[in-house]
Task: inverse folding
């Protein structure tokens, strides 16, 4: 992220009416051109671009904004539904706990997700100014559908079926700081309280 | 015997069934039932629009022997909401393991009832090298001596206890976990 300070000031002046943050295009002098003209790569995904946003410097009184690291792996040879169970397991855990759970999980996707988490941790320490590599927690972890390929599956007696070879993507967002405390489950008492509150909020409309 | 023809969506399966049935009708398949009359009356009920021949109302004709075979098939499409309820039920989610500890020797993670993977791999590697030394000494299969084996590392001499034993030399410092005697 080597952008010229003069360019940054000029861009902030131009774009201050639009949004506080702007895209940091890699190595270009014109920050207005958000279209990344790349000939070698196919297409940079949206998740990879999320690492490029730069916030303006914080004012002295504001609370410190925690670092966010976005990482993903594309076209993993695994089913997205099976990967979802692992993603659901580690949602909201601290990174150490997540790595421990994945190490002793018997699923194929667990090894892949562990590699992704270690890569993201490494990226966080090197590039995103995170002080302690254990001070990260998993804010979001999602799976997506990759490109499917249809193939022939031969049965007996000359019959065949079409099977689909499925691939998936895995996305993770690490945020600095301890993991948030888990929400207490909604009890019947809470539901009753909300219902009574709704009844109390009723009022007369379209009247004098 | 009552025949209920059902059009199956797979043309190959339908062609196969038609061919088999044709052969049965023409008597070109005498060995199928071992000389007796065919026990079943209705054909396989596969998904698809059923073509019931006229004169027979419904599927249960009064003259049937009662050996009709019906296959279960889903009546309606399961909606994504119902599918999600089933797939995301807590019994189907992965449980978090609470039996993970830290190995006191190497500091890696280990399960409580399982040996530490790192320490096991370390010992396995050393054993493999010792076995290679043994193989070099023996020279071939079936040459194992009838005495005990002692492994000595750099700077170690055989004691009085290792009098008649076979000595295997390893060219490295003794590992801390491999206690002598």
Result:
């Amino acid at each position: 992220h080597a952008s010229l300070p003069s360019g940054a000031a000029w861009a902030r002046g131009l774009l201050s009416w639009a949004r506080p943050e702007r895209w940091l295009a890699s190595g270009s002098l014109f920050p207005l051109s958000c279209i990344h003209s790349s000939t070698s790569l196919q297409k940079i995904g949206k998740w990879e671009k999320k690492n490029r946003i730069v916030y303006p410097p914080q004012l002295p009184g504001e609370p410190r904004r925690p670092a966010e690291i976005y990482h993903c792996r594309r076209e993993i040879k695994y089913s997205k539904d099976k990967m979802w169970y692992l993603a659901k397991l580690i949602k909201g855990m601290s990174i150490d706990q997540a790595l421990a759970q994945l190490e002793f999980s018997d699923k194929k996707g667990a090894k892949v997700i562990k590699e992704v988490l270690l890569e993201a941790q490494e990226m966080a320490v090197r590039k995103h100014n995170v002080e302690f590599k254990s001070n990260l927690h998993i804010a979001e972890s999602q799976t997506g559908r990759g490109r499917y390929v249809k193939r022939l599956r031969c049965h007996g007696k000359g019959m065949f079926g079409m099977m689909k070879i499925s691939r998936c993507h895995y996305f993770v967002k690490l945020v600095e700081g301890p993991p948030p405390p888990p929400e207490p489950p909604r009890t019947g008492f809470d539901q009753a309280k909300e219902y009574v509150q709704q009844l109390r909020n009723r009022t007369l409309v379209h009247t004098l | 015997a009552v025949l209920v023809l059902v059009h199956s969506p797979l043309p190959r399966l339908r062609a196969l069934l038609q061919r088999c049935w044709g052969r049965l009708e023409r008597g070109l398949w005498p060995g199928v039932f071992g000389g007796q009359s065919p026990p079943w009356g209705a054909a396989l009920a596969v998904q698809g629009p059923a073509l019931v021949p006229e004169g027979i109302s419904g599927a249960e004709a009064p003259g049937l022997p009662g050996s009709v075979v019906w296959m279960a098939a889903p009546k309606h499409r399961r909606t994504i909401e119902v599918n999600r309820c089933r797939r995301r039920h807590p019994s189907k989610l992965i449980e978090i393991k609470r039996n993970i500890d830290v190995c006191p020797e190497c500091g890696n993670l280990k399960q409580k009832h399982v040996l530490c993977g790192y320490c096991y791999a370390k010992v396995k590697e050393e054993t493999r090298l010792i076995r290679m030394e043994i193989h070099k000494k023996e020279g071939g299969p079936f040459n194992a001596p009838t005495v005990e084996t002692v492994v000595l590392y750099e700077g170690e001499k055989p004691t009085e206890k290792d009098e008649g034993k076979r000595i295997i030399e390893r060219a490295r410092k003794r590992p801390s976990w491999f206690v002598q005697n």
